[in-house]
Amino acid sequence: MPEFILIIAGEDSGDIIGKEFVKIAVEQGFEAVGTGGANMQRTGLKTVANFEDMAVNGFFDVLKKLPKLFFIKRTLQKNIKDENCKALVCIDYPGMNLPLMKFAKKINKPIFYVAPPQIWAWKKNRGKYFKNVNVGVFFQFEKNIYESFGAKVFFVEHPCLRNLKVCDEFKDKVLFLPGSRLGQLKRNLSKYINIASSVENAVFVASRKELFDFLNKKLGGKFPVILREHGTSFKGAKAAFCTPGTAVLETFMANVPTIAVAVIDPLTYMMGKLFLKTKYLTLPNIISGKEVVPEHIITTLSPAMRSF
Q1: What range does the domain containing 73 cover?
Q2: 58 or 111: which carries more pLDDT confidence?
Q3: Helical (H) or strand (E) element with 164
Q4: Can you tell me the distance from the alpha carbon of 108 to that of 273, in angstroms, rounded to the nearest whole number?
Q5: Could you tell me which residues are beta bridge partners of residue 220?
Q6: What total number of domains does the chain contain?
Q7: Would the pLDDT of 238 be above 60?
Q8: Would you call 112 helix, strand, or coil by DSSP?
Q9: Are residues 198 and 293 in the same domain?
Q10: Which helix (H) or strand (E) element contains residue 50?
Q11: Residue 229 belongs to some domain of the structure
Q12: CA atoms within 13 A on the CB side of 274
């Protein structure tokens, strides 16, 4: 195999960020190898694992896919050890990327970790693993905390901050974004349908073709489904209901009134209650220090909405 850069993303937001790193690797004469979705693949990524197998959310999702995830991890470790692998680029996805970063560090492989774990929220002790590691962050408060652990920190432009195209399909609609991972989407869908049934001009938004097909099948024409084109803004939408994550930041920055709603499994809920160190889950609230986006977390322990 020619010299390559190993680039690892495990979810849609990482796929959007990873597109730029694939482009840079190819422009510099390297092959881009690793895991990523349609955006990274269109830019030139040669995949070594199924992106859909990596899209997990919550402890139960991880448990169900453990054999596949272990196989992917071993495959990626093999690629890291390859003498033609000249660097490792990790994008978010700490459950997989943090162990791979440690593995690469032991064999002195150059590392760049973009959108690192949210150690200000929980498991702050993970910061010690980033000493002398190149870290790309989006916000000043992230830079400060990672520098305190000895990381070499750089600012990376967040995709949400770019000039995005306005999508006319979103204009004056109430958007429902139930998740970018299939397991997450399945848990959220019933609650999102209930909410959508009580509002006018409700549309569901899918981030990729697989989720678009799933939503169309499950909704059966009850609500329109829009496959969002990468690079489009939510600007002009009337309101949005989103799972906590990148989608909330995107709708908020597009000046769309947003509510974060998520249904999580009981184990994930209890772990969050025990270990979460911030009052809020969504970035707009964390950055603002106050609840500018209402957060509602639903668990099967209780049908009532509750917040962390």
Answers
A1: 4-115
A2: 111
A3: none
A4: 37
A5: none
A6: 2
A7: yes
A8: strand
A9: yes
A10: none
A11: yes
A12: 7
